[in-house]
Amino acid sequence: MLKKLLSVIVISTLSALSVFAQTNADLEMQFKKFNTLLYQLDRNYVDTVNLEKVVEKSIREMLQELDPHSVYIPEKELKKMNEPLEGNFEGIGIQFNILKDTITVVSPIPGGPSEKLGIRASDKIIKIEDEVVAGIGVTNSMVIERLRGKKGTIVNVSIKRRGENELLDYAIERDKIPIFSVDASYMGDDETGYIKINRFAAQTADEFREAVTKLKAQGMKNLILDLQGNGGGYLRAAVDIADELIDGNKLLVYTQGRTQPKQDLLAGQPGLFETGKLVVLVDEGSASASEIVSGAVQDWDRGLIVGRRTFGKGLVQKPFMLPDGSAVRMTVSRYYTPSGRCIQKPYKDGIEQYYRERFERYTSGEMFSLDSIELPDSLKFQTANNRTVYGGGGILPDVFVPFDTSESSSYFSAMVRKGIINDYALEYSDGNRRKLKKQFPDMVAFKAGFNVNEEMMNEMIKQAEKAKIEFVETDFIKSKNIIETRFKALLARSLYESEAFYYIINDLNESYQKALKVLQDGTYSKMKLAQNKN
């Protein structure tokens, strides 16, 4: 066991200490020091030492000393961490919520095993393998543990469905379930398409191409690409999407590190949307791969960046497997936008401060005014058309949109935290699904024709009171519009597909509304952008 653990720490020590070591002799000395310490702990320490725990903690703290994004991943966590980027997991294929202590199907995932068997939204899972799972304090982790499993294995569930007197029994054969990274794609107006990407995963570029092709068939001439809250993912996926937007063989991004030679990543394929007006939405949650796309679009004057300053992650990680099946994702290089900007924000004050900086933007005033950001001349860069852009910590938008708190309140926040609006939307769709689908056959008809009435609002107030949320009339009046819109959007998601949620909730998305405006009011055409050149 000790020999196995030592091999792990050797690999980790070699990798981490090589950053500091100037000679092979230095590296060998540091290795011997750690090796000797582990040996002495095992032989001479007063108590029995859990060497595995000691080694894992050492690796974690070693990496934390380097930068905020180099991380250690134990073997048991590795597969789960990779699932969102690989684009699939193995299970029964449902989106669920726990409503009134009962597992409730929000929607079956298209093409998954549950949908193929006829399992429907609002179905309630009462038993799993003859074990009652309703009314026992079931948690999300308990549900995942019981329903996920290897492809080809069977899980038996019993479902309660409205209108059926008896439980319905299903034997569901688990399969690979796709995890989609394009949340929504629809026409915002007669000429403007909207695409929302939540991460940059293995299949993201293919999903994006499919969405663009669909929208172009519907008459899309302008595109709003929403990367708000997108924390990144695969570098290759970001490059592939930027290639669909930027023509020729232009430089999209380059990477370079101490031991990694400079690597230029170029546009090379004819893209699906290389002409036409383009707006990219970003905010403080847009990071890494999102910043690669928005940085390339901005540097080549291909479109407008709308929103707020992005997170500021410009470090590239590479996975290294360790002998026991665990791994480290180690920073090996930095990436730079075409103009030469490294958008990585400083991290010399430690990891805690590094992540806290995003929230300090509220207190500094940056979330409400671009003027609050200090922009030294040393961070100035020029775009292809000689517009000034800045490096040193995120992508600054071309059109700033302040964070809007005008309709928010403590009462609304409490309702969201307690799940009141979400739970009532599921409950209402469960009782009115057939009627609503008949009256509103699609999300467009639903948005135009469905109104949230006083009876629905009063029911949400009652459910909030049951959850010990005190009714505050002034807060309620202030937040009435966002409560109604959120309820309507959640109800639409339950009735149709996930993009129906964005189709309605974007009425509250200030950056989206600003993007529509700059495309229509002449702002876009006045900017020094590539397609506006004579």
From TrEMBL:
Keyword vocabulary terms for this entry: Hydrolase, Protease, Serine protease, Signal
Signal peptide positions on this chain: 1-21
PDZ domain sequence ranges: 90-163
GO MF entries: endopeptidase activity; serine-type peptidase activity
Similarity section: Belongs to the peptidase S41A family.
An individual GO BP term: signal transduction
Superkingdom assignment: Bacteria
Protein's UniProt name: S41 family peptidase
InterPro entries: ClpP/crotonase-like_dom_sf, PDZ, PDZ_sf, Peptidase_S41A, Tail-specific_protease
SMART domains: PDZ, TSPc
Domain Tail specific protease residues, every copy: 165-357
Any single Gene Ontology cellular-component annotation: outer membrane-bounded periplasmic space
